[in-house]
Amino acid sequence: MAKLGVIHPDTLRQRVEGALRNAITTGVYRPGERLVERELCEELGVSRASVREALRKLEAEKLVNIVPHRGPVVATISLEDARQLYELRSLLEGFAANGFVGRASDEQIADCEAAAADLRRAAEGQDQNGVLQAKARLYDTILGNCGNTHVWEILRGLHSRINLLRATSLMDEERLPKSLAEIDSLIQSFKDRDAKKAEEISRLHVRNASKVAFGYLAAQEAEAGAAKA
């Protein structure tokens, strides 16, 4: 059964990259899974050259690793990598939330509120892809209007890698309601124009999310170690 839809020639490079990136970050292809070029070509309806070009781009984004004698595989994240990623994410997202409060229009804050509402609906419907899309819209609005394009560029790269973890841990039954409540509090801080509160909530949200991710990775590494023993 095909995992991806056929792509037509228009804007081919971007669309192939986008299809593969979305399949990886939403968990269609799991960390460590081999990506067979021939199968990708058949599923996408494109040439091997187009697939290879897209895989090179995703390798640069650290979503794909090219393994000798095995070929491209979906990247994995170690526990230490995750700690460093979440530390940087906490700092930058807090900074971005603070900057957004001082610069955002009422309409942009309303866009955040609408994305948060879509996020809640997707979460309640157990729609993982919908949750990822709504979160992406929320962050695009915040980061695109925080007053620092470099922070936006760095965080977009971080989010792509962190989505490798989100695809497996985002719908954690214990974490999800707390995550939604934190996002609601963040939106309220935007509406109140409370920059300090927005920064605090944003950093808290990342710290709490990291605990779930670290737990998942620790269990995964322990399982891998037991399998080698």
UniProtKB/TrEMBL annotation:
Question: One GO molecular function term?
Answer: DNA-binding transcription factor activity
Extract the InterPro entries matched here. GntR_C, TF_FadR/GntR_C, Tscrpt_reg_HTH_GntR, WH-like_DNA-bd_sf, WH_DNA-bd_sf
Keywords attached to this entry? DNA-binding, Transcription, Transcription regulation
Instruction: Look up the coiled coil feature and give its residue ranges.
Output: none
Concerning PROSITE patterns, the annotation shows: HTH_GNTR
Give the matching PANTHER family: GLUCONATE OPERON TRANSCRIPTIONAL REPRESSOR, TRANSCRIPTIONAL REGULATOR, GNTR FAMILY
Give the protein name, as stated in the record: GntR family transcriptional regulator
Name the source organism.
Answer: Salipiger pallidus
